[in-house]
Predict the 3D structure of the following.
Amino acid sequence: MILLLAQLMVGIAPEPLPKAPPPAAAIERRALKKPPDALFADLISSDEQHRKDAMDTLGFEFMRGNYFGDAALHAVNMDVDEATERLISLDNGVAVMKQEGDVWWLLGSFSCCGPSGNAPRPFVEWKELAWAGTKDLIIRSSGIHGTGVGQTIFTAYRILRGQLYPVIEMEEQSYNLRET
């Protein structure tokens, strides 16, 4: 927001919305049968079948029956429209949802390191990387790794016209303890 105000004060126009989607393919989205708040209630329910169904719907099938740590439902503005998107986050998983008309869409879900793995911290966050007032989704994942070597991959995703696109991917950190 401060960057936008500074740009306006010195007469620099903020970056316009691109006319075309990013060159990377959008993540396939799918319609949800329940809104995010109902899915979240099912996810933290004491009813095992409700939890299983919510995990499957959100794309976390492999985590069924396992402890998934903290769970939270977030309302975040991730694109240029005024409606907020919903994110359901777990210790090592996140699902991104957007409403269009009366339909909620699962735009993508991400997980790291199996049901009880050591996810890079923070595994997921959202920050203003390009446009003031909209957040980009940042996912950190384990790259190539083995005994004494490894890397963390930083990938940023952006919502444009109801689709989730990867826009930046880079190696954020690497280590090689075998040659020290």
About this structure: The chain has three helices and nine strands. Residues 67 and 146 are 25 Å apart (CA to CA).
